[in-house]
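Consider this today:
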Amino acid sequence: MAAAADTAKTRPKTSPKSIKFLFGGLAGMGATVFVQPLDLVKNRMQLSGQGSKAREYKTSFHAVASILRNEGIGGIYTGLSAGLLRQATYTTTRLGIYTVLFERMSKADGTPPNFFMKALIGMTAGATGAFIGTPAEVALIRMTADGRLPPDQRRGYTNVFNALIRITREEGVTTLWRGCIPTMARAVVVNAAQLASYSQSKQALLDSDNLAIPDADGGYFRDDILCHFCASMISGLVTTAASMPVDIVKTRIQNMRMIDGKPEYRNGLDVLVKVIRKEGFFSLWKGFTPYYARLGPHTVLTFVFLEQMNRFYKIYFLDS
């Protein structure tokens, strides 16, 4: 009893679980508003030159210019509603679960779990969030890919809810979870890399007391926006390099059509084999620049928004 009371006294006060999930979703949605054009370019680049080495878009800038020329300024925000729903489902779940498990695995004095436990927590959170967010992901891939097709081949979804309803009615409800396995595999890689590398980078920056120009607290960084930004950019680079091959598998499967009554790809391995054979090994990292340009700022904005919401909640609700 006494030990439990001591633990309750020493463990820092935290926000309720519902607030953790809410802040996770809001942080992701806020970031998506800024980076949706980069997500569009990334998806177009991954589908460019499908089945051959002749690419539809030569560079990311060529893709942006083509989209603006053919679809107008509003075209760069195609699929925004699906992107927001994806964050509301996927990011709410993954960041909420990660935060809850992270705190549960931390010691009574607030000492965080080690790197491998962070990675395991990240993989668990990512896989769960990906399963819940797959329908919005399918809608997002299709909506962002639509503008590259001839007018008679476009699906023409007006918004994410129209996409979900039509997919269910025209192709069956299970199509909403098409590519679920590679989506979950990507999420495992992304979250193991992103969440663990962010926590580890942030911790390393805060512990940097042996640098040449320490601050008043003995380290170069404090727990502020600069630290969050630097940790996020490191995390974004690690995550981009690790997750792109899995991401291109997910994108191709979720956008595929039936050819002569048969699916274009049998499974994720079939995608990898065909991409490497027909487009070259390094095509697995096709769209690296927009992917990092999207993932880097999205990681930064998500964690900055999340950290600031948690900070204000702590100041006005937990410490008041």
Observations:
- The chain has ten helices and two strands.
- Residues 1-9 have pLDDT under 50 and may be disordered.
- The beta strands are 258-259, 262-263.
